[in-house]
Amino acid sequence: MGKGELAMNFIHPTAYVDVMVKLGDNNYVGPFCHLTGELTVGDNNRFEGHCSVGTRPEHMEYWHKNGAATIGNDNVFREFITIH
């Protein structure tokens, strides 16, 4: 992308991205993904189908920083992963 060009995110129509989630540029959110909570996502990430990111963990003793999660840049998350 050239300087000043807008890099768009792709969010599949079946994916859910909560209004609290902060998305960077040029991310791909695949089918049936669920991104929620105090979640910050950097640039150029790829979430394949059925990813669940930012949700509460099953065991609450692992719920750190009030549930805030940060994803950096240039990552690939394959199908059916969960990140708390």
Structural class: mainly beta
Strand order of the largest sheet: 1-4-7-10
**Strand tally, please?**
11
Percentage of residues in strands? 25-35%
Written description of the protein model:
This protein has strands at residues 10-11, 16-17, 22-23, 28-29, 34-35, 39-41, 46-47, 52-53, 69-71, 76-77, 82-83. With 84 residues, the protein is mainly beta. The protein has a four-stranded parallel β-sheet with strand order 1-4-7-10, with no helix packed on it. The chain has a four-stranded parallel β-sheet with strand order 2-5-8-11, with no helix packed on it. A three-stranded parallel β-sheet has the order 3-6-9, with no helix packed on it. The model has no long low-confidence stretch (mean pLDDT 89).
Overview features:
84 residues; mainly beta; 0% helix; 4-stranded parallel β-sheet
Structure summarized in a few sentences:
It is built from no helices and eleven strands.
Write the layout of secondary structure elements.
Elements: E1 10-11, E2 16-17, E3 22-23, E4 28-29, E5 34-35, E6 39-41, E7 46-47, E8 52-53, E9 69-71, E10 76-77, E11 82-83
